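User: Just a sanity check before I run the rest of the batch. Below are the structure tokens for the first item. I only need the designed sequence back.
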């Protein structure tokens, strides 16, 4: 029953619809169409535009999702801005590495999560390294 209905639409109703369309013989003929003739053409033009879009869609550049462009995915999301202050005088070690990729489990201290991030994304981010100068007095 369903296939018979589809068959009737394709074999009988579609050709009859297309024959009744006011398709001009030349491009200039489109300029002479009346408003009612344009309204009769709209369904066909809409379907052709949709088919054209669906045909070229796989070749269009993919848009990144907003989430992909975020840098900070989970650190202190409840704050409007993440700020960490550390006095250089308070450094206990000679070298301290601070995270710049926002993926560290020990944020703000680097845990080398940027290595996996760089491998997955092709990025080249690395830590901020603060070195404490040891002054030797003679």
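Assistant: Here's the designed sequence for the first item:
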């Amino acid at each position: 029953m369903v296939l018979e209905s589809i068959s009737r639409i394709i074999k009988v109703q579609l050709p009859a619809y297309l024959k009744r369309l006011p398709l001009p013989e030349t491009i200039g003929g489109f300029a002479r169409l009346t408003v009612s003739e344009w309204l009769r053409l709209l369904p066909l033009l809409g379907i052709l535009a949709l088919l054209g879009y669906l045909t070229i869609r796989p070749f269009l550049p993919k848009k990144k999702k907003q989430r992909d462009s975020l840098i900070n995915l989970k650190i202190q999301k409840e704050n409007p801005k993440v700020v960490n202050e550390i006095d250089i005088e308070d450094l206990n070690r000679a070298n301290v590495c601070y995270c710049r990729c926002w993926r560290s489990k020990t944020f703000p201290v680097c845990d080398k999560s940027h290595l996996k991030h760089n491998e997955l994304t092709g990025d080249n981010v690395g830590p901020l390294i603060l070195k404490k100068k040891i002054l030797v007095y003679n």
